[in-house]
DNA sequence: TTGTATGCGTTATCAG
DNA sequence: CTGATAACGCATACAA
């Protein structure tokens, strides 16, 4: 069933049906009524593909997520959910594309076949070929995270350097002298993953500033890795009394390793870091942490993208979020 | 840039470009070469929208996920990831639609605007109006889970009744006499959510069969609810020595409540249930559980959907998965 | 081996 | 206030 069928049954022309639906030109109320009745009876809705072809826009945005193999973290999941939600609120559909490798058929379809009006690019690398690809193709996009060179793109990011610096200062204020940063996987760090790099910078800066003894260790995105990581840390670094982490998936393992070592949090050992709020609250004891506002980020990313789409020539915008550190119960004065 | 531009630059007609690309009719190798050179130079890819309009199919499938508000469980997340992955392997894109309420704009767009070739419907209810809606619209679809009446649809599901029955029998064999089933939220059970209902049936059957004392309790999908749930259970039912659960999100809380009560797993208390494999393995001690094969389900769901799309009149197919119970370390003989 | 012409379902322009 | 008609970009039946 199509607009012609409706027109035929209502005894009007196709354009009248179209205008009755869009309201873009006056239609006699009697005519409109007749048309609407037919539409209601048959449950007609304009075909999205034909409309997209005619209008030159798809009312769809692409969301490029990390490849499916790597399990998404809660933070990432919350972000995806909030993007889908924010998009739905403005009647936009979301096309999912798992991408990461340089050559990716799904990503290529997205950028060069005109399937979407714009793209949200998650998990951006400091050097990310996809950014150039999108720019060359002229597809509006916003990055979650930003590249090293910035490249005149719009992005929204979390100030990992600042947050980790804050965390370390907080630990220093509590008297901790020997602290570790548990970061993301060695592969990710090597690949130039921004948050990991910047967290490392913030850590180094704060450690230097306060004259602490700081150890940075990579850690896989799962509980087991977290456990092994802390076990190794405790084995190799006596006098360690606190860790800060940006690896939320490792938290359950971190917790476990400490419990196994007979260390009570926060009396014997302090933990702090950057994590999704529910994750921090579910931790035991509740985690003193910067709560990544994933939901807010999703909303803002969609808003930013809409701006890029409607005003491609406007100067790109950047949003750097620095959520406050929520003081909960996982940090305390260092034992003397 | 479009096919006409390529044709012009290569000095051939549009159809020749089209055929050079599709290979659906012979093209002189010299001509093909010339066309290909222009295409490579300009990086041309046929517009997906125009192609979809012409061909009558979008090469896109819809994935209807639970509304964003409710955080997805790991099982669901794994499923989404595997669907996206399986779809990408056959060059299909995935359109995400958060739906649940009866009236949902995003869902309506999906079914009535021809945006997708077919739909995978997650989190199906025993009575689910969306099933009728899809059938009325003539959109091929497969359900994850099935309705009460079956309604001649294709679906893939996990045999929750059978799995819970197995779990309870296992506990009975170990000498447990008083056991509880921790199911999903009261709302979900009330709404006629299949897995919860069927788990309840399996539980009741096994309890009766073995002459046990069984308690079924609803529980929200989060750690906190799990904790409160077990606390209440321990308070109200002395002599309880084991629980089985289909609520994987509650597991961390269940674990915590038992630890707080000074009960060691599995020596003082046994736990078993249905969960994603990584979840079960990350549990401490590793959970004796039926590992829901979410990845396999995603792949099979896509395959099933492809069949519905290519052969709409073929009889619908059903796949009921009964993963084996992996014996790990969370169950032991009841203390006497 | 190649070119021309048509139609997919819309929206919007141009006439009336 | 309404109707005929031309695009949007592509694939394909029909002609040559």
TrEMBL record, chains A, B:
Residues 1-55 form the HTH lacI-type domain. GO terms for molecular function: DNA-binding transcription factor activity; transcription cis-regulatory region binding. It comes from the Bacteria. Gene3D superfamilies: 3.40.50.2300, lambda repressor-like DNA-binding domains. Keywords: DNA-binding, Transcription, Transcription regulation. The keyword RNA-binding does not apply. It holds the Pfam family LacI. PANTHER family: LACI-RELATED TRANSCRIPTIONAL REPRESSOR, LACTOSE OPERON REPRESSOR. This is LacI family transcriptional regulator.
